[in-house]
Amino acid sequence: MYLQLMRFFLLIILFFYRVMIFAQPATDPLLKKIVEENTGPLFQQVLNDPQTYRLQVIYTQINRDKHNRPGFTNYYYNYDPGLYFNPASTVKLPLALLSLEKLNRIHIKGVNKYTAMQFDSSYDKQVSLYLDSTSKNQLPSIAQFIRKAFLISDNDAYNRMYQFTGQQDINRGLHDKRYNDIRITRQFMGFTAEQNRHTNPLRFIKDDGTLIYLQPAAYNTDSFHFPPPIKIGKAHYNSNDSLVNEPIDFTGANYLSLKDLQQLLQSVLFPSSVPSTQRFQLTKDDRRFLYRYLSQFPSETSYPKYDTGKYYDSYVKFFFRNETRHLPAGLRVFNKVGWAYGFLTDVSYVADFKNKVEFMLTATIYVNSDGILNDDKYDYDTIGHPFLYQLGQTIYRYELQRQRQYKPRLSKFTIHYEHRDVNDKRSTIKEADN
Q: Does the structure show a pLDDT above 70 at 335?
């Protein structure tokens, strides 16, 4: 009880400290100059009204020394950790890291990210899971959940990693690593706060069904410290599809700051660049696996076999998503995106192997001109995606011409990606919950 009270008071102190430090949105002159050189009407429309669009940007410049060691400098545009954005599917990134870390921590023989697992139900509205038709052996696994979460941002994959890790360990684990601006309270299942505190019993099995390890149902007894009410919009549709002429309340929803999101990705790709307390306990194979599926295209993947007409190469690469549907030759984006309630967010590391260019870019924007949430009428296609694409291209062009004392050697991120078997006649997946 004492430790819980101390944790609670520490979070309050940190909250008010950050409020004082970032009382005004932070904007650096360099990033302001770079983005304002893009005079496109839509781009300027957003820049001229950052509060309406709840725009926040972090551009991370990477400079290598003669030993190829990277140094990182963040530049901010309208950055404000007190300005809420709904993180949507970006929370799948920390869930993937925590899931892999938990597997390494429990250290049970025969249990790893590729081991088959099954989920039972033991509490109201929980859903069992015994098979996964997208995987090669037709069984669920942490590896398959991460593939689906990164390749097209599958929602059930997130729910299952949440259930494996548990609400209590998710938040304790992130806060213990000093990611204090993160709060993960919800699965993507329409559950109540109490239902989200409960997580399913599950088991790891051999492919023949033999039990290896049973994890019982869990319940989070920790309390959450929620901020002052966060209400957005002028109206919303509720779970009964009825229009409610009030803002939607995000006070108890998932939350993370843009800076913590950027730092999470940096900790995975460049672990030695962050304090040891912020690193995740991952194996070398874990890291290679993450590098692959943070950057691999759905068209290169056989399991799951997604329809590439819908899930094209740049589908979840917002800074390079345009009508061509393809990224420039020799370029890969290691990233995680999220979209919900009119919010679009992307955290990316961009590696251009052809031109020897690298940088990180993290941004969020809110595009909901009618002010009504849950009506599926957002300005993603007319404002959100075009703006993020232009933002990505503006920074990319700047990076292409920026002088470097030492060009990066990017062999660490060179991956031999999969290739689909042309003789594979299985039908493709055209619809997924994402």
A: yes
